[in-house]
Amino acid sequence: MTDTLDRTELTARLSEQFDALAELVTGLDENRWRTPSPLPGWTVFDVLSHVIGTESMLLGDKPPARDRQAPDVEVKTLPHVRNEIGAFNEIWVQRLRLRPGTELLGLYRAVIDRRRAALAAMDDAAWSAPTPSPVGEVPYARFMRVRLFDCWMHELDIADALGERVDEGGARGELAFAEFAKSLPRVIAKRGAAPAGSLITLALTGPLARTLHIEVGDRARYVDAPGAEPTVTVESDSGLLIRLGGGRVDAESALDRITFRGDAELGRRIVRNLAFTI
Fold this sequence. Notes:
Layout: H1 7-25, H2 30-33, H3 44-58, H4 84-96, H5 101-121, H6 124-128, E1 130-131, E2 138-139, H7 140-162, H8 170-182, H9 184-191, E3 199-205, E4 210-216, E5 220-222, E6 232-237, H10 238-245, H11 251-254, E7 259-262, H12 264-272
Parallel strand pairs: 3-6
Antiparallel strand pairs: 1-2, 3-4, 4-5, 6-7
Helix pairs in contact: 1-5, 1-7, 3-4, 3-5, 3-7, 7-8
């Protein structure tokens, strides 16, 4: 399982990811922009607004002023806002919502051009500097992999909303999955309550096919060569597992698309508690 934080590789894939998002929404009419997404309370338009907000924040920009025609919403009261990061995201979404889709895409392109320039201007010290992020204080390089994962997930959100198919594998998918996979041992042990001494195998098919073994002891960790038979093997399409981890798919509706070998009760409990992204 790759854990690449190479600057050249990561910035190239992030730049490609920015382009992929723009390509998905180019040419949409206003009705399609307002298609509900898998994220509660957000349309396709709102998902791109969120990406604009985060990348603008990284440039030091503040949210635009509220349009006088827009409702004055207390974002923390919205049911899909669960924490401070969610509230920050929602402010940008609310402030951009009245703009037409073509204007939003133009703003996105301008912000992304500035972000590319900012990334290119960074020196090695800045790339490795400790930085606050959604996964705690980490090197800036790791934060950029989190950004790649977030934007990649939002590409899937937009594609799913519009009924479009995109390539979920490849170099971008591999790096995004590496970030996603960082959390799986903790999620399976804590949220899924996998008992100490258990071995969980994830047998993934599809564009990011692989087999992952997670051993639960004092702490859960990946192992390359397990010394025993898995307590449970969870066989799933990689895209389905990612959407479950992102809370985009209801676990109960997904159980019939997943095969469990071994302790099926444990496997179902793990699947029902996979959602962990903000």
